[in-house]
Amino acid sequence: MFIGCTDDVTGPEDPQIDRVVISPESVELEVGEQAEFSFELLTEAGEPVDTEDLDMETEWISTDDAVFTVDEGGTAVGQSPGEEFCIIDVTVDKGSSNFTGRDTAVVFVF
């Protein structure tokens, strides 16, 4: 019999998601021009979190569709001159460690 050994074998814990970061932080578009936004989930230490196996919902939002539109993949299209915000909302369901976050970028259309 081995003293001090247990059958409790656990793998590494999932990293705790601390924030969502949109990229780029700002874009300048001409009317009709497109820009691609993306996002990363980061730990408190600033390390990227692998999103491949996460149960995650995302929503891209334009604060004014008359200035620019943004689709579900993060592609923004300039509609008319102005300055507005592109927002990403992310919700991750990880059982006991859920995450909800938001970040914004500035969109200038000229």
Please provide a brief summary of the model.
By secondary structure, the protein is mainly beta. The protein contains no helices and nine strands. The N and C termini lie far apart (76 Å).
Which helices and strands occur, and which strands form pairs?
Layout: E1 19-23, E2 26-29, E3 34-36, E4 38-42, E5 55-62, E6 68-70, E7 75-78, E8 82-93, E9 99-109
In terms of quaternary structure, the protein is: single chain
| Tally of structural domains | 1
Biggest β-sheet strands, sense, barrel: 4 strands, mixed
By CATH reckoning, the class would read Mainly Beta
- CA-CA gap between termini: 76 Å
**Share in helix:** under 10%
Query: What is the architecture at the second tier of CATH?
Result: Sandwich
Low-confidence stretches at least 5 residues in length (pLDDT < 50)? 6-11
List how many beta strands DSSP finds: 9
Shape field: elongated
Estimate the strand proportion.
Answer: over 45%
CATH T-level topology: Immunoglobulin-like
- Listing every helix as H and every strand as E from the N terminus to the C terminus, the arrangement reads EEEEEEEEE
* Sheet with the most strands: spatial strand order: 2-9-8-5
Q: Can you give the mean pLDDT?
A: 89
How many helices? The count is 0
Give the class from helix and strand content and strand pairing: mainly beta
Question: What is the C-alpha radius of gyration, as a whole number of Å?
Answer: 19 Å
